Amino acid sequence: MPPVETVTSLQNPRVKRLVKLRRRRHRAGEGLVLLDEPRVIRRALDAGASPRELYTCAPHLAEDPEIARLAEELAAAGAEVVDLAPHVMAKAAYREDPAVLLALVAMPGTALDALALPGDALVLVLENVEKPGNLGAIVRTASGAGVHAVLACGDGADPWNPNALRASTGAVFSVPVAVAETAEIMAFLRERAIRLVAADPKARDAYPDLDLTGPTAFLLGAEDRGLTAGMAASADLACRIPMNGAADSLNVSVSAAILVYEARRQRDASRLTP
Q1: What does pTM read for this prediction?
Q2: Which of 115, 143, 199, 215 could disulfide-link to 171, CB 3.0 to 4.6 Å?
Q3: For the segment 104-140, what is each residue's pLDDT rounded down to a tens digit?
Q4: Residue 150 CB burial class (10 angstroms; 0-12, 13-18, ≥19)
């Protein structure tokens, strides 16, 4: 796995390009995602992501056979290999703790028309969930609960932000995630007869009181403002998560977890009922 280049200068064009790829517009412009955590890189590779470039650091490879094996797999999958000096790796990586590998992979498609949903679809719709860490945590929950797709719209709809990638632990490569305008998402769900359930702390019904066994999309908004009036009005039903203490709301990723796991519980129970 000989590198095509060894970079020792922080002024190298490759390094400047890696730093730029932390920004959304540069990622979108190149159609590439920057990964700097081995677990995320492994899950991306296992999910079929297409690696384009691999940035190694020779001392790290010598110290960790597992990292060395991952690097060999990426190179075998077609990634161009470039070696970075330790101080250059520290500059190029997004994470504060020392990165051992950097990988550039092709950005998976995020178009609605690329999604294929089953008849009993379970979907999460996120409107204006601005914090990338929350978005990533929700996708991680979606993976665990068997959610069929996560649809994001409005401010902060960037599943490829480095913080979203890390919070998802790489689940963004295995859970279908689509980014679109609100109207497009609503039309997509209506065309498929998926019932829209808005999360609303003022709703009459508590979430366990609803039948969630059919095709369902939960609508969740920003923690401080909730859903916009237009999104809330488009829902077929609304539900609340009972709050018994001083707090009047939960973190949006916690709310998403409660709702989708209740839907999963009901669906599993219905399959066991004679």
Answers
A1: 0.91
A2: 143
A3: 999 987 789 889 999 999 999 999 998 999 999 999 9
A4: buried
Helix, strand, or coil (residue 102): strand
Domain ranges of the chain: 5-106, 112-272
Alpha-carbon distance of 183 to 231, in angstroms, equals 9
State the virtual CA torsion across 28, 32, 36, 37 in degrees, nearest 10.
Answer: 100
End-to-end CA distance of the chain: 58
How far is the C-alpha of 13 from the C-alpha of 43, rounded, in Å? 28
- Residue 10's Cβ-side half-sphere holds a number of Cα atoms within 13 Å equal to 6
What's the CATH fold of domain 112-272? Answer: Alpha/beta knot (3.40.1280)
C-alpha distances out from residue 78 to 1, 23, 104, 182, Å: 11, 25, 11, 37
Beta strand 101-106 pairing with 32-35 = antiparallel
Residues 93-129 as b/e (b if ≥16 CB within 10 A, e otherwise) read: bbeeeebbbbbbbebbebebeebebeeebbbbbbbbb
Chain segment 183-204, per-residue pLDDT in tens: 999 999 999 999 999 999 889 9
Which contacts of 8-16 are long-range, i.e. CB under 8 A and separated by 24 or more positions?
8/85, 8/88, 9/88, 10/87, 10/88, 10/91, 12/88, 14/55, 14/82, 15/84, 15/88, 15/91, 15/92
Give the model's pLDDT for residue 273: 63
